[in-house]
Amino acid sequence: MTLDTFLTGTRSQLETALANSFTDSGNRQLTEAIHYSLLDGGKRLRPALVRAAGEIAGADVNQWLTPACALEMIHVYSLIHDDLPAMDNDDLRRGKPTSHKKFNEATAILAGDALQAEAFALLANSQDLNDAQARKMIQTLASACGASGMVAGQMIDLQSEDKTLDLTQLANLHSLKTGALIQAALKLGAYGQANADAALIEALDLYGQAIGLAFQITDDILDVTGSTDVLGKPKGSDQAAEKSTYVSLLGLPEAQLKAKQQHQLAIKALQAIDLDESSILWQLADYVIERDH
């Protein structure tokens, strides 16, 4: 299967499942705000990772689709909150006004809050997962998005504005802010198979660490080399905020080399479990560093 076919199929399944998983909050404005961000398309990279890992482990469609939806809800909530004036203060997301620009700050905050809660409810109430699977997935997702994961990364990011980080500090920031959910995506997929092999999960975790960092380095590169129209958000926003990036610390050529090195680490992890260049995870690793948005 080609990566394009895989991603298109994943997006189609995910969009339908997301639309069915959250229909009405009982409040029109809140529901509109949730749908505005949740059903707005996007790359859906994290759900694709959930599916790819799930299929390798032997999970059936509902066993990977439920955690994929939960993870995407967490990701979308984080984007809504990251865009707020108190955080990154962005006006555009995926080429459209951000949630607080479309509605207002309070509505955006509440939409994000609701999505976070809905993600865990989706896992807890699933009929396609046994109790042990649901508990393990909830623990994994909570750890990845909470005070020792994504939220910690965002806190460090805010505290680092107008400061120059070294490479170790920058890698730690991004391993929390970006990498934690990417690693969680792979574990969630594997946990869709109740008896997933421990060696497989370890290899997927190493792969996730590498592509998580490669993803962020590529984001830093695109902030310099991309265009606002293609990126769907303002070009140069990191530079304008005086944030430390791999490009600002290393320069563009060295940052590009660093992304390729992380890509090779990801490939090495896949080779350890006998996956080759025809595998979706290999193709996804290529996509992470070759994308234009």
From TrEMBL:
What CDD domains does this protein map onto?
A: Trans_IPPS_HT
One BP annotation, GO: terpenoid biosynthetic process
Q: Which Pfam families did the record assign?
A: polyprenyl_synt
The prosthetic group or cofactor this protein requires is:
Mg(2+)
Which keywords are on file for this protein?
Answer: Isoprene biosynthesis, Magnesium, Metal-binding, Transferase
A cellular-component GO term for this protein: cytoplasm
Which is one GO molecular function term here? metal ion binding
Establish whether keyword Zinc-finger is in the entry. no
Keyword Metal-binding present in the record's keywords: the answer is yes
Domain of life per record: Bacteria
Q: Where exactly are the transmembrane stretches of this chain?
A: none
The UniProt entry, under InterPro entries, shows: Isoprenoid_synthase_dom_sf, Polyprenyl_synt, Polyprenyl_synt_CS, Prenyl_diphosphate_synthase
> What family does the entry list?
Belongs to the FPP/GGPP synthase family.
What protein am I looking at?
Polyprenyl synthetase family protein
Say which species the protein is native to.
Answer: Reinekea thalattae
